[in-house]
Every structure is written in C-alpha cells, then in structure tokens.
Amino acid sequence: MRVILADDSTLLHEGLVRLLAEEGHEVVAAVGDGAALVEAVALHPDVDAVVVDVRMPPTHTDEGLRAALEIRRAHPGIGVLVLSQYVEKRYATELLTSEDGGAGVGYLLKDRVVEVDEFLDALERVAAGRAAFDPEVVRRLLARSTHTDPLGRLTPRERDVLDAMAQGHANTAIAERLHVSRSAVEKHINAIFDKLELPASSGYSRRVLAVLRYLGS
C-alpha cells in the first residue's frame, strides 16, 4: 500500500514509518498537522490510505478528524484510519455517519497500534473500502440502557454479530470469530434486519443502516 501519515508525536510518527516500511508498504508523506495532511493528499491523490491522529496542531482538538472528513469528501477512494488516545464517541459517530456511511474509514485507539497485526489489518480494510472500528470504541458506543435501547429485541448472538459488523468485519470473518458457519451468520443478519425493520427496498445498504442504528441508539 501507499500511505500518508499525519501525527505530531515524533515517537509514534517514526515508529509507524518504520513499521510500514518493514511490512513492504510505502509511506509517501509524513506530516504533523491537518492542513499539511490535506495538502499531501492533494499532491498524492493516488495513495491507498491515510493514517491520522484526531488531535493535532494548532488547537489539538479535532483538526485530524476535520481533515479526515475533508479527504473522504474530496477523495472517497482513499481509506482513512483515525487514531485517538481515548474513546471519543462524537468523533467515532461522525465518521460512521458521514456521507459514505462509514465505508473506507476506521477508528482505532493508539494503544492498538502496538498490536501490529490488528493495526495492519485495520489499515488494509480501510484501504479496501471497508470499515475498521476498534472493539473498545464499539463497546463504549454500545453501552446503553437496555430498556431505552431499540435493539433490545436482538438475541445475544445477534448482538455479537452486529458488534462484529460495526467493527467492519465481513461475514466470513464474523463466522470465524464466532465459530459458526457463514450461513448461520447470514441468518442472524437477516433476523437483525427484520427486527430493526430495515426493508430491502429502502434504497440504502441495510448493513450500514443497521450499524448506524446500533451506534446511534
């Protein structure tokens, strides 16, 4: 993959450059703020993905997120993997509810970067146009009261399947994670669509709508 990095932490910055190079990927640019990231993408619009910190100079609030959303609007074919020190529900939800419905975007906690296989898997997924959300981020987003949760009709196994969907896993990967057959996963997903009253004729991806309903409940 050809990747652009954006992070103002020198240690993380250099570590990711070295890691990606060792894995055979090309880091075409490495910058330290959101504006520089947008400029780098404009110069290299053929990159596969960008990795960006949520908080960067000058205000260290949401510059990285703003840059990520701008890149997704201007270059929807580029995958965006956002890194954050903490679970910030508003930012994760904003990524998932962007115009592209969360396709090609990911949100990982920085601690997950040390899990090299998980980080690389997430980066490959967003570069391929799929979603990749940290399990802890999903867990926090789903910490809701069951009697106010419209998803309360789902069985525990259906919630497990939807949780995996929210992380961006495809049906085959969900089957492997839950140790069930792919056909069983498909049956659970169809049951989820029925219980959430998501008709096939809605004109939108029922999978995306189910995840958005799950995270927004």
Automatic annotation (TrEMBL):
SMART domains: HTH_LUXR, REC. GO terms for biological process: phosphorelay signal transduction system; regulation of DNA-templated transcription. GO terms for molecular function: DNA binding. The keyword Ligase does not apply. The lineage of its organism: Bacteria, Bacillati, Actinomycetota, Actinomycetes, Kitasatosporales. It comes from the Bacteria. This is Two-component system response regulator. InterPro entries: CheY-like_superfamily, NreC/VraR/RcsB-like_REC, Sig_transdc_resp-reg_C-effctor, Sig_transdc_resp-reg_receiver, Tscrpt_reg_LuxR_C, WalR-like. The modification 4-aspartylphosphate is found at residue 53. Residues 147-217 form the HTH luxR-type domain. Pfam families: GerE, Response_reg. PROSITE patterns: HTH_LUXR_2, RESPONSE_REGULATORY. Residues 2-125 form the Response regulatory domain. It comes from Streptomyces sparsogenes DSM 40356. Keywords: DNA-binding, Phosphoprotein, Transcription, Transcription regulation.
